[in-house]
Amino acid sequence: MAKFAVIGLGKFGMNVATNLYENGAEVIAIDNNRKLIDEISGRVSVSIHMNSTDEKALKENRIQDVDAVILAIGNNIEVSVLTAVILKKIGVSNIFAKVDSKVHERILELLGIQNIIFPEEQIAKQLANSLLSSSVLEYIDLSSGHSVVELVVPENWVGKSLQELALPSKKGINIIAIKYTSLNVTEEGENVLDKKINDMPGANDIIHEGDVLVLIGPKHKINELIAETSREG
Ligand code: ADP
C-alpha cells in the first residue's frame, strides 16, 4: 500500500490527506495546531501533533520511510524551507511542496525540490488556457454573475442523451440550445451542409460529434466545466 506523509493541514493539506486516505493509501498527517489534528483524526491512518522542524520527531515517526511527503505549509516560507531541508537530510527523496508565492517557489527550486505546486497560479493558467481553447466559441458574461457559452462537445459526450449528461443536476448548468449541421440534398442533387439550431432541447436528444451546445450557468460553474472538458478532450 502506498504510504504518504502530509505536513501542514491547511485547506490544501487537509484535502490531499483525506483524499489519499479515502482512496486507500496509508497517510500520516502532521500539524502543530492541535485543533487541526483533532479535526483530521479518524480520517487518516495516523495524525501527529508536532513541529515539522523537529528532526528527531520526524525520524521517530519514520517519515523517511514513506513513498512521498506532501509539504503543505504555504503561509510560512521559513518553516516550509526549513522543513524541506530537514526532510532531505533524513533521506526523503520524494517531496511535493505547496507554495503560495513566487519567492517561495524559487527558494524551494534552489533547494532541489522538483515537485512544486502553486495551486492558484496553476489553476489560473489552466483556466486561461481552457478559455482560449478552440472548443469555446463564445463566452458572454451576464451582469447576474452568470455566463453563456458556446461549447463544441467533447468527444466523450458524443452518443449520450441530455438526460444521461445531466448537466443541470450534476453541474448546475442548463442547455439552452444545440447547434448542429445536417447534410441535405438540394433539388439539383447537390450535397449541402445546413446549419441548424434546436432551441428546445429535450432529455432524449442525442449529442453528435461536432455539435455545439449553448449553455448558461453561474460563471464559476461554467469555468469548471470548460476546464474539465478541455482536460478530457
Ligand atoms: P492553506 O493555504 O492550504 O490553507 P496554509 O499554508 O495556510 O495552508 O497552512 C499551513 C498549515 O501548516 C497550518 O495548518 C499550520 O498550522 C501548519 N504549520 C505551520 N507551521 C508548522 C510547523 N512548524 N509544524 C507543523 N505544522 C505547521
Q: How would you classify the helix and strand content by structural class?
A: alpha/beta
Largest sheet: 6 strands, parallel
List the helices and strands in order: EHEHEHEHEHEHEEHHEEEH
User: What is the average of the pLDDT values?
Assistant: 93
The total of helices stands at 9
> Which range does the strand content fall in?
25-35%
Q: Segments where pLDDT lies below 50 for 5+ residues?
A: none
Taking Cα atoms only, what radius of gyration do you get, to the nearest Å?
A: 24 Å
Helicity level: 25-40%
* Count of extended strands: 11
Overall geometric form: elongated
In short, what is this structure?
The protein has 233 residues and is an alpha/beta fold. It has helices spanning 11-22, 34-40, 55-60, 77-89, 102-110, 119-131, 162-165, 167-171, 219-232; strands at 3-7, 26-31, 46-49, 68-71, 95-98, 115-117, 136-141, 146-152, 174-185, 191-198, 212-218. The chain is built from nine helices and eleven strands.
Please, could you describe this protein's structure?
With 233 residues, this protein is α/β, with parallel strands linked by helices. The protein is built from 9 helices and 11 strands. The protein has helices spanning 11-22, 34-40, 55-60, 77-89, 102-110, 119-131, 162-165, 167-171, 219-232, and strands spanning 3-7, 26-31, 46-49, 68-71, 95-98, 115-117, 136-141, 146-152, 174-185, 191-198, 212-218. It has a 6-stranded parallel beta sheet, with helices on both faces. A 5-stranded antiparallel beta sheet has the order 7-8-11-9-10. A hairpin with a 5-residue loop joins strand 9 (174-185) and strand 10 (191-198). The longest helix has 14 residues, at 219-232. The relative contact order is 0.11. The mean pLDDT is 93. The structure holds adenosine-5'-diphosphate.
